[in-house]
Amino acid sequence: MTIACDVLIQGGGGAGCSAALHLAQRGLRVVLLERGLVGGQASGVNYGGVRQQGRHPAELPIARRSRELWGRLKDLVGTDAEFSITGHLKLARNEAEEADLIAYLDVAKQHDLPLRMVGRNAIHREYPWLGPQVVAGSFAPEDGAANPRLLAPALANAARAAGADIREHHEVVAHAHDGARFHLRTAAGEAFTAPALLNMAGFWGGRVAEAFGEPVPIEALSPNMLVTEPVPYFIEPNLGVVGGNLYLRQIPRGNVIMGGGRGESDPSVPWSRPLPEISFRTMGLAVEVIPSLAGVQVIRSWTGIDGRMPDVIPVIGPSRTTPGLFHAFGFSGHGFQLGPAIGAIMAELVVDGRTDIPLEAFRVDRFKAPAA
Amino acid sequence: MKVAVVGAGPAGVRAVERLVAAGLSPVWIDEAPDGGGRIYQRPPPGVNRDARTLYGFEARRATALHTALDALKPRSDWRPETLVWHIRPEARQLHTLHRGRQAGVDYDAAILCTGAMDRVIPVPGWTRPGVTTLGAAQIALKTQGCGIGGRVVFLGTGPLLWLVAYQYAKAGAEVAAVLDTTPFATKARATPGLLRGGATFVKGLYYIAWLRRRGIRIAEGIAPLAIEGDAGGVTGVAWRDASGREHRVACDAAGMGWGLKPEAQLADLARVPFRHDPLQANWVPERDAAGRTPVRGIYLAGDGAGIGGAEVAEIAGARAALALLEDAGHRVDPIETVPLDRKLAAQARFRAALERAFPFPSHLARGIADDTILCRCEGLRTGELRAAARAEAATGPAPEMNRAKAFTRVGMGRCQGRVCGVAAAEVLAAELGCDVTAIGRLRGQPPVKPIPIPAAGDAP
Amino acid sequence: MKLTRLRDASRPRISLTLDGTPIEAQQGDTLLTALLAGGAGHLRESEFGDGPRAGFCLMGACQDCWVVVEGMGRVRACATLAGQGMKVRRG
């Protein structure tokens, strides 16, 4: 028996679940197929940064729209996923990095992103726990962090409540398009068909695109994450550094969450693990920024699998080969904040055929060598 | 050939013994300063080490093991006070931590003898100072000459319950009560199978008879109600007997435990698959009778590979080493392996009877009150897990232990679910109306135990 | 929680402090024994308001006996030997 619907979504990360919610709210019959559990990979195991500052300028319109959705997440899905507006403080550890921060102020201004420099004197006054290596910072007061374990399941539940059919443990093994409809088959032999297909399968989105004749150079990315035992709360802002080799935040319960570098993975299983040398490098960078973390115990480390594009921004938008196919994958390690808006944008592409958000930079065929 | 052995308890000692006899010098790693495992742990220097006092009937066995251990230290790359916090089977590398210093250890083959810990069921008041595991009560007495209190109640089930009570009474502590959740009839039914245990069974009967003769209060088939206390600690234990009557006894400490569970985190990180053993009511790593796992180069022995006790651990350690040697192309005479295999098979039959005599009371775990702390690291109460399970069930997704962890933080704290994992799985399964095997088990994540962030400039 | 010394209780004495209060102990004591036989009552507070803790497993598994020793940092009291003059803080 083939299950027919209006839109098929492959991939139950934050973005896919948000798309299911937005499409269901607009009255479409949606079936979402997730190979494992919703939020099982990049969406669920990431750092939890809800950050606009520092993003590629092309991503900022999406990030701004998503931030607006984060602000009313509770109304949207019934939980705030522990979203808290702590501000995001990006640190410079030398003059070149400080120049980087100053240069970004203009980008922020163009996109109405509130951002202010915190100079050499002020930064150690405002954040006395920072190490001497830090020379300046830029502070984005609207940014913050949330619990990544909660977002995708909450969006999935809201989508279900709105009428979407969210199916976990449904691995798609065959894709076809007959000119009018898509035909998907799962590992268990179930068949699904719809005139529209959203490819939101993270790293595996590369394979879906390939199945429709538009391969992209995507690679697996496993962010190497650590968390410490709870210690008295003192790090309010979500912290990053220029260059991105360390990101760190503390939750009010006291645990310090930090990441940087990549773990190891085998997407064919799928399987992924943090790497000991990377974990120690992250700890080393963390004590340079916050010396009082020395001696605090790391109790757990983890990673998952995301897709990384060569230019480190995702693929978003319509297929160039197959009408009715829309892509949103390859978020390159920073899709968590974007997820809610991506779902809204995908719904607009499917239902309205257009969106106000400029997507040119995210074209699926941007990596193709120009025809000779 | 580079061989690593993790653990220097009964299994680890006998494994290293066989490897050394074959001319190998394994890297030998143990967390304790002086080996021996938990069962034959030696007191620190300066504390009485008289084997007869410390190990009772097991004195000869303990002394023999210590003698072998001490003789093997110079013949191996002995690394005491060292934690193996991660293993990467693809790279064949162990990651260790010794006094804050991290190191990598390459291996071609490794035998993991990581032992076991008490299996516990949360009882109201169990996080109070003065409440410990049965194993802890024994360690305090054995290695420190101390009782966990002056007047102690022992609660739970299994051979260790009776042994520890006996050891406390023998050492002059006041044992206020022994409360066994297993009814007498269940134990009696298992007696025919237990007879296979020979001396072990007789010793068990002796402890029970000795306690009865001393007039120590004993209750069987009970359900614990609470470990009561005030700001100063424990003041008493309350329980309900089989006929529904409630009782209370005053005490200042309580030891509790319901059998043992494997400390199998390293096997998990080594990507050894696990199966649920219905008789032990434990998730155990997959291995054959000789200790080979489906992961190339990884061997398991002792309680970390499924609970069998110290005697089995010694045999299994030797057997796993021989399996490793066989696989590495050494000539191993069947005259060595056959008797070991025979003993292991006989012991397995006794073990099965023991599990039937002291079954894990999953109904007690499933019935933990909502306001009882379930995960002591995260301060999570049982009702919070149930509420999350109900919310999940309402939307219909597949029930899963790790998802419950993601939602509620159960098992997410410093101990990584070692203590609460078994009970949490029962609570979740009961709430979802499914078998405990259907919800999976908490995945292992490195580090196996907490590791400190090195001071600046101290990074490895 | 008060550990009771049942045997071998006349080892050489050592002294240490817990949060500034002197504690008398014996050579060969772990920090857990030294503190809990010496009247400390508990070793740490649950971070989440669930009351005092004094260890549970005594075998380095439960992670509920962390204390801070000056010069050593955070240690498990059950797996650390007490030493003369140690300055300990509840962890």
Automatic annotation (TrEMBL), chain A:
Keyword line: Oxidoreductase
Cell cycle recorded as keyword: no
GO molecular function per UniProt: oxidoreductase activity
InterPro entries according to UniProt: FAD-dep_OxRdtase, FAD/NAD-bd_sf
Domain FAD dependent oxidoreductase: 6-349
Any Gene Ontology CC annotation: cytoplasm
One family name in Pfam for this protein: DAO
Protein name as catalogued: FAD-binding oxidoreductase
Source organism (scientific name): Neoroseomonas soli
From TrEMBL, chain B:
Pfam families linked to this entry: Pyr_redox_2, SO_alpha_A3
Keyword terms, alphabetized: Oxidoreductase
Domain named FAD/NAD(P)-binding: residues: 1-313
Any one GO molecular-function label of the UniProt entry: oxidoreductase activity
Top-rank taxon, per record: Bacteria
All copies of domain SoxA A3, residue ranges: 400-455
InterPro entries in the cross-refs: BFD-like_2Fe2S-bd_dom_sf (IPR041854), FAD/NAD-bd_sf (IPR036188), FAD/NAD-binding_dom (IPR023753), Metab_Enz_Cyan_OpOx_G3PDH (IPR051691), Opine_Oxase_asu/HCN_bsu (IPR017224), SoxA_A3 (IPR041117)
Protein name: FAD-dependent oxidoreductase
Automatic annotation (TrEMBL), chain C:
InterPro entries (alphabetical): 2Fe-2S-bd_N (IPR042204), 2Fe-2S_ferredoxin-like_sf (IPR036010), 2Fe-2S_ferredoxin-type (IPR001041)
The 2Fe-2S ferredoxin-type domain, residue ranges: 12-91
GO molecular function: iron-sulfur cluster binding; oxidoreductase activity
Keyword Methyltransferase belongs to the record: no
Alphabetized UniProt keyword annotations: Oxidoreductase
SUPFAM superfamilies found in the cross-reference section: 2Fe-2S ferredoxin-like
Name of the protein: (2Fe-2S)-binding protein
Lineage, broadest ranks: Bacteria, Pseudomonadati, Pseudomonadota, Alphaproteobacteria, Acetobacterales
